[in-house]
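Researcher: Here's the sequence for the chain we discussed earlier.
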Amino acid sequence: MDQNDPIFSKSVLDMFTVANEYCIFLEKAASYEPETIYTYLHRVLPLLYLKGSTVPAVLAKYPEANERYVTEEHWQGIFNQLKTKFAQNDTFYFCDPGSEDEETNSFSLAENLTDIYQDMKDFVLLFSRESHAARENAIQEIARLFKSHWGNRILLCQTQIHFLLYRQDMENYDN
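Model: Thanks. This is the structure I predict for it:
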């Protein structure tokens, strides 16, 4: 094991650890109260974002070793659990800063969190393989998806979760 190999870097191992914890928690979300889920997400999502931003750039030598694991059925199962838990708090509205018009779009907390889950689970499972090529692909893919996919979804969700946890304090402050 080459200690200078980026697949064994602290930032990658930290990313793996936090991603794995996130996946384990979401897989058990049906057994938690919504408030517990919001509190956990409020704490883990910023950490996941931070760890994702520190993943080193790795160019996979064998891109054919890249795999996706989360099936549509698996995704749907996690999504349905979260959607049921969040109920009327699932939908939230946000003005996309990349949009030229100032139109407000609706988003689903459950959908965004499940999309993040899919990227994390695929990373965890691919990185868990004993193959160096698989691990390189896992790192390359999670870094790419951070920039294009799950990093932004974390930021969207964090705003809604903050509101759900602290809305009464926010309302009391305004009065």
